[in-house]
Amino acid sequence: MQDAIRFTSVSKAFGTVSALTDFEFHAPSGSITVLLGPNGAGKTTSVRLCTGAMTPDFGEIRVLGLDPGRDGELVRRRTGVVPPKPAFYDQLTGWENLEFAARIFEADAQSAREAAERFAIDDALDQEVAGYSTGMRTRLALARSVIHDPEVLLLDEPTAGLDPEASRAVLDLIRELAGKGRTIVMCTHLLHEAEGIADQVVLIDHGHARAVGSPDSLAKRYIADPIVIFDAENRSSLDMLEGRDGVLRMNRNGHIEVALDDLDRLPDLVSALVGAGARLTRVEPINPSLEDLYFEMQRQHREGAAS
Amino acid sequence: MRVPMVRAVASTHLKGLFKTRDYWVPLIILAGIFFIVVPLILLNVVQRVDRTPLMNQVADIIGTLPAAIQDNIQGETGGTRAAYAFAVYLLAPIAIVVPLTISSAVGANAIVGEREKGTGEFLAHSPLSLQEIYVGKLFAAFIPGYMATLVGFAIYALIVNVVVGPNVGGWFFPTTGWWLLIFWVVPPFILIALSLILRLSARVRSAASAHQASTLVTLPVIIMSYAAASGLIYSPTISALFIGIVAWALAIFLLLTGSRSLKRERLLGVASEA
Fold first, then answer.
1. Chain B interface disruption, residue of A89, A106, A153, A157, most B CBs within 10 A
2. pTM of the prediction?
């Protein structure tokens, strides 16, 4: 798969404050990449560099094969952005704001209407934006960002200030857009938001990409020992797991949590238990959540830095 | 530079302005005071009071005008001659003060306002070129001031002709000098002031700073244009040609180079050099 976005050793500083340092990441075409990190980590700067709204001090950026610093206009035509605090011309109506966007992105009025319908803001288009709620503003910002059917969508905290229901609707729409082949880069500091949506996670901290990969690959890398929960009608039948090849430790907690050296051992263990007459009621590999991953990565980096 | 894009930027800005009552009500009041109220009162008073200390002062002022100008002043009585002189020669600077005041207020806020409202981020990520944004904003600031001047000028002409005309043999206003002033000299002076104000607006950190700094630009331009307007009215053809050419050349140069002051990072509000 070709990369829609590629950052190579990118550094950007504001005065003496370094926003990104040797930052590397790539977003494959048609994927959802989540830039995950605390506030001030460098996520917004990354988005701004993608469109050429800022230029890097060092390093190379390619978006859709173009250099945003040199071919910014071409990149921006093919890119949609939702900034962290979407702003509008508040005295104008929602429709007038969309119409302005349509004019400068050379899209037609029909596209603007369809974008508004897609994000369920079409009923409020005749109102002045000054009277919009946070959720309505976000939906209008999302509609504005897709008016020209961009190939790359950069969403900076797109669910900030939204209630859970509205957040879920936004995330569903992001999935839908990715399903249609759009490349999406989403910045968030909310771990649960990235969960289940990301094809790839880039953990940013203090301007560095601490870890990059799919949630699964990061889990394998950072949470070394997979955990499987076992339960049976007769729990003593599970005692035989102790000491078997691949079983690193067992933790009894009502059910039994077993740490394995490799998840591929699981079928053999289940066969052995069944063969020994255990009537299993639960065999559940635990997939670490992004939250587990995030804190584990942070812990390992802190330890690495300390040593 | 694409004209439809410039038009989109300017018309959106103007739409926002005209939906803001706080903006256009003072604009109408200002133009009304300068183009209607003051001339109406002044011309009526000057025509009606004769042989008063005020008239003596007016006569003194007229006496300082060049002989050729004094010969052009029409009217049989002192009051009529004074009203004619006021209408044609002495009130010319209002044609400069009004548009510059209105346009500089809009211009000062034009770019820094985008940054303060956060809409600068949208513009920064848009395919608009910096020149399109700059020129669009410049026209958004130019149009209200110049439109107010054109409308005010039409009303002023009507007032002058109705109040003074019957005493000098009919409608006489606008004179050649005023036509040239309004259509040939005022526009480049507004553009000169605006191109300087927009440079400031692109650099400062807040709208308040922009307004403060814009007075530094507006005042010298008003003085310069006041002098130009006076010279033009006194000697329409030569002065108008010369002043107009110089002013247009300067305005075009400043327009072409002005967009360099604008940076996308400044629209985002993060330029370290701001």
1. A89
2. 0.80
